[in-house]
Amino acid sequence: MSLSPHVEYRNGFPYQAVNDLQQYVSLPEEPQLRYSRYFSLDARVSKDINVSSKHAVRLSLNGINLSNHANYLQVHNNTEIHNTAYSLETMEGIYWQISTFFFS
């Protein structure tokens, strides 16, 4: 059985506001628009099961965003659409995935 953790942390990437024609818009009141900081803690537990002398099956359980940190995926930054300027789309919650692989 093996455990494979994955930790990722970074400052927020910069982005630029656009108008309805997808042209860049300068906003003097803010120096640089940035996503929030990103933190992700993922882990995989896997086990190889031999089914013959040449073949095996790998069962794995993946846990994604185990810290349950809200990470921003996309910015809706059109400055000319009312009530949606600078809204953020997030990935929140913990996700689980079960996988099976057959290999020789």
Summarize the structure.
With 104 residues, the chain is an all-beta fold. The protein has strands at residues 2-10, 38-50, 56-64, 71-76, 87-91, 95-103. It has no helices and six strands.
SSE blueprint:
Elements: E1 2-10, E2 38-50, E3 56-64, E4 71-76, E5 87-91, E6 95-103
Can you describe what's shown?
The protein is elongated. The protein has one domain. It has about 100 residues and is an all-beta fold. Strand 2 (about 40-50) and strand 3 (about 55-65) form a beta hairpin. It has a 4-stranded antiparallel beta sheet with strand order 1-2-3-6, with no helix packed on it. It has a two-stranded antiparallel ribbon with strand order 4-5. It has no helices and 6 strands. The model is unreliable at about 80-90 (pLDDT under 50).
Percentage beta strand: over 45%
Q: What is the CA-atom radius of gyration, in angstroms?
A: 21 Å
What sequence of helices (H) and strands (E) makes up the elements?
EEEEEE
Which class do the helix and strand fractions yield?
mainly beta
Unreliable segments (pLDDT under 50, ≥5 consecutive)?
Answer: 82-88
Helical content stands at under 10%
Report the major sheet. Answer: 4 strands, antiparallel
Amino- and carboxy-terminal Cα gap: 18 Å
Could you tell me the mean pLDDT?
76
Helix count? 0
Shape: elongated
